[in-house]
Amino acid sequence: GPAAPGGPRPPLLLTAGVEAARRPLGAVTCSSSARRRSSCARRPCAPCTGHAVDLNIFLDDPEFAEIIQRAEQAVECGVFPERISQGSSGSYFVKDPKGKSIGVFKPKSEEPYGHLNPKWTKYFHKICCPCCFGRGCLVPNQGYLSEAGAYLVDDKLGLGVVPKTKVVWLVSETFNYSAIDRAKSRGKKYALEKVPKVAKKFNRIGLPPKVGSLQLFVEGYKEADYWLRKFETDPLPENTRKEFQSQFERLVILDYIIRNTDRGNDNWLVRYEKQDDGTDLSDKDIQWTVTKDPIIKIAAIDNGLAFPFKHPDEWRAYPFHWAWLSQAKVPFSQETRDLVLPRISDMNFVQDLCEDLYELFKTDKGFDKATFENQMSVMRGQILNLTQALKDGKSPLQLVQMPRVIVERSSTGSQGRIVHLSNTFTQTFHSRKPFFSSW
């Protein structure tokens, strides 16, 4: 039940972010919570401007739960999320009490076409160019689910290229709220100060929490475009080159399965570090320093424009820009085939993946089961193509040139050439192409 003002805060329940239960709390001040957890690192605690609520449930991931707790504690202590200047939506660097960035939060309401997007460019786009507004193949305002869904696919396949991303609820005065929400918050806090007993009439004191995706912050990475230019003039050692190719292939598999419509060389990252183990081998007048191969790792960020309910077939093709790289001309390695092929060629695995995504996507207020099934039809078609490409030893470039496929549950009402896969699924070759198409 609600906590009394100044009383102990109910324990934070922490799970998969997909079945979060909403439970309102009473007023809580930063001092009581901070004494229970730990003292604020920067400054004395001030009363909370927002309100922490038990909407974040991560029982199966205590490490992520602890990160969310630190983010909440930071807000309570006046260390607020910082809005990121780049991009076309409201996204924020979430910090710990010491001011260190620990994640990137993207609220649903501040997505590119969300009603509280603080970036004026998309508002201008919507007003002045309504005929070209949005991406016709994507479900509007579900980018946060796409971000979390990309991590789910990455984790199920064991790719390891998407930083951990889950759906969370956060509140901060630095988020973009409507004037009405801010006025209500000020009114409730004023009433609480004057008449503490009135707090019992309020389900929440402060600003309302926002739902969105939180992706853990990765350090030591730079945009792929930077390193790709570097590698042209300073080629990688052979073992490192093979590791980079393996990481690249995992990025390709992720993007292709979720049909990412927004993958350029500026929204995937590369970490490249030369290392020296410091071991010296001396032989009279000759001395050698034993060095290890450089570390190289890819991080696939910005996955919010994926999971279309149809293949792009209007104006733009939204191609995968990595298809023009030299790495895309190399056939998939045996290592990648051994990792991915046994999973995606198993229909039970694919069905489990669809069911997991259903549990995630159905939490959105605008969820539509028929639209979701269309999204899964596209994804199953991508998986079918990928399975065949891996079996045939094709390259990523050859993969994206394969005919587009939709694998639907219904065996009736489809147009084009249909091949029966089982009693439930049919395969449709999608022939309509967008006006501006590269393939």
From TrEMBL:
Residues annotated as coiled-coil are: none
Q: Which InterPro entries match?
A: Lsb6/PI4K2, PI3/4_kinase_cat_dom
On whether Glycosyltransferase is a keyword of this UniProt record, the answer is: no
Q: What is this enzyme's catalytic activity, as reactions?
A: a 1,2-diacyl-sn-glycero-3-phospho-(1D-myo-inositol) + ATP = a 1,2-diacyl-sn-glycero-3-phospho-(1D-myo-inositol 4-phosphate) + ADP + H(+)
Q: Which GO terms describe its biological process?
A: endosome organization; Golgi organization; phosphatidylinositol phosphate biosynthetic process
| Pfam families xref list | PI3_PI4_kinase
Task: Kindly list the places in or outside the cell where this protein is found, as annotated in its UniProt entry.
Answer: Cell membrane; Cytoplasm, Cytosol; Early endosome membrane; Endoplasmic reticulum membrane
State the annotated membrane topology for this chain. Answer: Peripheral membrane protein
Could you tell me the EC number(s) of this protein? 2.7.1.67
Which cellular components does GO assign to this protein?
Answer: cytosol; early endosome membrane; endoplasmic reticulum membrane; Golgi membrane; lysosomal membrane; plasma membrane; trans-Golgi network
Keywords per UniProt: ATP-binding, Cell membrane, Cytoplasm, Endoplasmic reticulum, Endosome, Golgi apparatus, Kinase, Lipid metabolism, Membrane, Nucleotide-binding, Transferase
- Judged by the first EC level, this protein's enzyme class is transferase
Ranges for the PI3K/PI4K catalytic domain? 78-409
GO molecular function terms noted in the UniProt entry: 1-phosphatidylinositol 4-kinase activity; ATP binding
The answer to whether keyword Nucleotide-binding applies is yes
Query: In which broad location class does this protein mainly occur, judging by the first location in its UniProt entry?
Result: membrane
Q: Which family does it belong to?
A: Belongs to the PI3/PI4-kinase family. Type II PI4K subfamily.
Official protein name in the record: Phosphatidylinositol 4-kinase type 2
What is the phylogenetic placement of the source species in the record?
Answer: Eukaryota, Metazoa, Chordata, Craniata, Vertebrata
The gene from which this protein is expressed is PI4K2B
